[in-house]
Structures are given as structure tokens and as C-alpha cells.
Amino acid sequence: MTAEISGDALRGHLATMLLSALEAGPAHGFDLLKRIEAAGCGLLHLKEGSVYPALYRLEREGLVRAEWESPESERRGPRRRIYRLTRRGRARLAQGREEWSRFVRVVGAIVGA
Amino acid sequence: MTAEISGDALRGHLATMLLSALEAGPAHGFDLLKRIEAAGCGLLHLKEGSVYPALYRLEREGLVRAEWESPESERRGPRRRIYRLTRRGRARLAQGREEWSRFVRVVGAIVGA
DNA sequence: TCCAGTACTTAGTCTGTCTAAATACAAAGA
DNA sequence: TCTTTGTATTTAGACAGACTAAGTACTGGA
Predict the structure, then answer these.
(1) How many Cβ atoms from other residues are within 10 Å of residue B93's Cβ?
(2) Disulfide: which of A19, A85, A101, B105 matches A93 by Cβ 3.0-4.6 Å?
(3) Is pLDDT of A81 > 70?
(4) Which residues are A81's β-sheet partners?
């Protein structure tokens, strides 16, 4: 019954996770969802309702740029929106990583696990 | 401009932090607030409006037991409500620590900081 | 034909932290 | 004396972000 990581715990970290996942290269939302879930060793089940709105926020803040995959593409299937990091997104990712390590250090010191 | 740890990031971890702080011995809310802030190296500024309601939740869940400090005490000043861990609280703390380390491992793997 | 998988959207809910203000007591200083 | 500062608790209301849940749309396989 391996407990899952709850949504509450994730709060405020999802943005950095998405930016980090995008660092490996441009991707569409569903792919990001799968990439992160795969990296989560089955403990992390993100929902579309969290990921897509989070991506919209990132786009609104200019941290990612999005464009619809060219329809001339040879692939079949639903259209996909491709996200890529902007320069500001990279800067924010660096900042997010600092915040993450600070967070782990400080909370870890208190929780003492 | 040392950035502070935001409330969002803390979500879902405060309960474990409080239980952990109580492990050192019974304490009242204000003391817990100060203890945790002190352990936070100035990066963590909890608010009463977060801590007291969190303690009420813990009490409601039977994870801590609370009682008013005996009025016969020789000390002067406002009355204080003393919290102590229950057996269930200790069990939950252990569980919270496992969740914390899982969380750090999984999110850390994605953020890669 | 129906279903499963991919891919995106969005309305509405929930909950925990926050802001902010109030209460109360004591000690120190002007 | 009056004010301020520090200790200590309470609580109403705001807010943000992850959630539930339902929908759209396309493709391929059973």
C-alpha cells in the first residue's frame, strides 16, 4: 500500500518540477506528465487538472513558450502543444533549485528524518 | 534578499514539523513557533494563523493532547496551552518522516538540484 | 462497433497557509 | 501614568494551487 505523495505536499514545487523536466528538451504536456510520473517511481500521480493549468501559469509568466505542433507533421493523432523553456524560465529554474535545496535543508533539519 | 520559504512550499509538511518539534518534549504553541523558526535559520517565518489551527487539527485527530498550564504555576503572564505527543502522534510522526524522505527522494530526482 | 490510449480543456471543490485583527497579561521606559 | 514591547492565544476571511470530474477530439485494434 505504498503511500502516494499527496497533492498538498507538492504545492509550490510543481512549477520547478515542470521547468526541470523541460530542461531535457521541448515537450508537450502529456509527455511531461508521463516523464514526471515515470521519474516518480510510481509514487507520484500527477493529474491533467494540475499539470495543464500549471503550464498555463508558466506560459503567462513568460517562463515557457508554447506552440501547436505543425499540422504538416506526418504523425497521426490529437494535436499537441509543445512547450520549451525561455531564458527567464531557465533563470527561474535555477532559482527554483536553490529554493528546493534550501527547503530540503531547513525542513529536513526540523523533521530530522 | 535571502528568499524565504513560502507558505505554499510548506503545505502538507507543517504537521510533521510540529510533531517533530514536540518530540523533544511538551511545549506550548508559541514555543513551537519559536523553536521551528529558530531551526529555520531565519528562512522560515511561520505565522500564528498557521500554527495554532494546525495544532487544533492535530488535537482533533488525536495526535497531540493539550491542556492549560496549571494556574497555580509561579509564572506570570498569559495562560499557555501545553501540547504533548500521544502514542498515535508518535506513530504519525514516524509515518510523516517516511513520507518526507520519499518526497525528498522523488521530487529531488526530478528537480535534480 | 466499441474500447483503450493519446492529448488537451475547464468548471468547480477543497484545504491549508496566509493576513489581520482582536484579546489578555506583564515588564520596562519615557 | 501612559505607551510600548514581548509573550500567548484566538479566529474571521482571503487566496492559491492541486484536485475531481467531465467534456472534446483523434487513432488503432479487438
Answers:
(1) 22
(2) A19
(3) yes
(4) A68
